[in-house]
Amino acid sequence: MKTILISGNDTNIGKTWICRALANYLALHHQHVQVVKVIETGVMPNQKGDAETAIEDISANCQAYTLYSFAAPLAPVSAARKVNHKLNFNNILHKIKNLPETDWRILETAGGLAVPLDETGLDSADLALQLPTDYLLLVIQNRLGAIHQARVLAAYAPHSKIKTGIWFNDSMSVDDDVTQSNYAELANLSIPLWGHQLHQLQTLRFFDSFPLRLMRDA
C-alpha cells in the first residue's frame, strides 16, 4: 500500500479538488483507493464531507472515510473543544492505521501544514512523519504570492525524510505571465513542482519530477 498525504499552505486552496483528481486517475488505472479526511470542520451532519465529495462520480474502486467531523468552522482543536472533545494525536494515528488495506491511501488534512491537529500542537508534518507516508503533496494556489508560500512550506516540510512536492491549483483564472514566473522562480527550490491542476479542468498536468510512474501522462 502507498500513502499520499495532502496538505498545503492554507485552507480553501483546493486540496479536495486535487484529492478528487488523483483518486479518479488512480481508479481509472484499476487501483483501489481510499480518500481519508483526517479532520473536517465547518460541515453539518446532513452535509456531504470532503472525502465523499472527492470520490463522487468515480464509479468504482474508491472508498471515502472521515475520521473526525465538527460543525464549527474553526481550526480543528477549537472546533473539537466546541463539543467538549479533545483531539489526541495517538488516537488519530490509531484510526488511520486501523483502516482497511488498499492500493493507495490519500490522506487530506485540515487547513495548512502547520495547523495543530491536537491539544499539544502536533500538526500535519508530524502526522506525515509518524505514519508510513510515501509522498507528501503540498497544494498551493497558483497566483501572485505563490513563490513566498512555496518557500515557506519548503522550509517547514520534512522533505529530507519524505518525498515531497508542490502541486499548483488554479482556483481561478491565472495570467500566464504569473504562472511562468512562478514556474521559473521555483525551479531551484529544495522541493520540486510535481503537478498543476488547471482552472476548471479535470486534466492533471504532471511534471517530470513527479515520482509516480503510474500517474505520468502516457
Indicate the radius of gyration in whole angstroms: 17 Å
The dominant shape is globular
Largest sheet: 8 strands, mixed
CATH level-4 homologous superfamily: P-loop containing nucleotide triphosphate hydrolases
What is the CATH topology classification name? Rossmann fold
DSSP strand tally: 8
Q: Domain count, please report it.
A: 1
CATH architectural group: 3-Layer(aba) Sandwich
Let me know the average pLDDT. 90
What distance separates the N and C termini?
23 Å
Helix content: 25-40%
Spatial order of strands in the largest sheet? 3-2-4-1-5-6-7-8
Secondary-structure element pattern, one letter each: EHEHEHHEHEHEHEE
The helix tally amounts to 7
Textual characterization of the structure:
There is one protein chain. The chain has one domain: Rossmann fold. Helices cover 29% and strands 24% of the residues. By secondary structure, the protein is α/β, with parallel strands linked by helices. It contains seven helices and eight strands; from the N terminus they run βαβαβααβαβαβαββ. The protein has helices at 15-28, 50-55, 76-82, 89-97, 124-130, 146-156, 176-185; strands at 2-8, 33-41, 62-70, 104-108, 135-141, 163-169, 193-197, 204-206. The protein has an eight-stranded mixed sheet with strand order 3-2-4-1-5-6-7-8, with helices on both faces.
